[in-house]
Amino acid sequence: MNNSIRLIIALGFVVLATTSCKTKQKIATIPSGANVEATAPKPVSSTPVAEQVEAAPVVYEKEVTRNESFTLVDGQNADALKYKYHVVVGSFSKQENAKGLQSTLNAEGNKSIIVVNEKGMYRLLIASFNDYNQAHVRIKEISNRFPDAWVLVQK
Predict the structure, then answer these.
(1) Is the pTM here over 0.70, yes or no?
(2) Partners of residue 151 on adjacent β-strands
């Protein structure tokens, strides 16, 4: 009886070991007919491994934007409209509310501007970029204060 239990446990380990190896083999094998491009080996650097710095991979976010036709509110700087992507931190039905947040942000060193869309909504833009990923990085930077910030694109 005792030998039977030992035999069953031993067989269990053998089965477990062989099935895990097959899974790894399946992952490592290349299906027939696969087009695999050969690469040249990387040159060996004389710099010690501890001193080698690898560049962080660039992660491109899927563009999530809202497209609207909008114009600047009177007295605003038109330079921001030269860019494609605008980070919106506030949307207001009353211009006075947008101006209140704008004066707070500008007092903190930002160069925010107010635009109005065709439906009369006032959008407070805190930053503008030609690259979506830069706009997305800015949104991440301000996400604690403005969790609902989003990207606006001129129609």
Answers:
(1) no
(2) 65, 87
